[in-house]
Amino acid sequence: MRIKAQLIPQRTRGNITIVGSYRDRRTERELYLLTSGRKVVSVLDENDRVFQHNFESGYPLELSLDLDDFQDKAVVDFWKNHPLVNTEGYTNPNLVSEQFVFEIKEEKIRVEYETLISKLTCVSQVTAMNDQERKNLAFALGSDPRGMNSQEVYLSLIGLTLNGIAIAKRGMVSNFLSVRSAERIATVYANKAIHYKIIRQEGSVYKIGGRNCGTTIDSVISMVMSDNDLFENYIKPEVDKIDKDEFAQVETIGSAQLEIPKEILDILPVTSAREKKRVSKTTEE
Q1: Is the model's pLDDT at 273 over the cut of 50?
Q2: 23 and 161: one domain?
């Protein structure tokens, strides 16, 4: 497959030069791109010259390569692993400084497409939830939805331009939905207890009634899961009491209802038939 690629300098002013040689951390070998720009070697012969290119501001290096050709594929790998080059969607083990971007048109399209699908999948996951589940998710992601109506919570999670907290932390959303119920409950209650000042942060340490809960949210969640007596007899009833008071005030003021058009629901990539059925049922109610 023939591809078009660009090596784009990140400096916006002045000229910059890149040299085609470096030591690869994975293979522990010196790699050299010959002056033709089409062949990579690990040992230089006496007459070989190393590739060097001087960029003018605003003019990237244009490349046309065939991935079915062994030497061309080696050139692609060379640039993707160059210490000064970053490639979107690829982790460069040799990266020292991102002075250039290696952009493969086909790869860029693939990465952007997969990113869009992951965002739409997150939209479907949030859409499949009921109002209380969305509020719980907001807490689990470190937000505080108190005082928000249903529409505000949904917007804060999704965002007008797919830039909401759930979209930004969509990996966390998937993890939150995939863990067992007890851990999801502990995550929600731990975050609520912190927002409600039931568990307070003193310096870098979270504490409840003088008891050390650790220095991270994860440590607080672990404590909530491991100490059932503390959870059932103190944290849960205190959180539930504040929940009741807080969200009752929102309902009293008048909560804007969340109504998602059926046309939108039909095209969202809901992750399972069961979820899709549940979304439809939720909107009908």
Answers
A1: no
A2: no
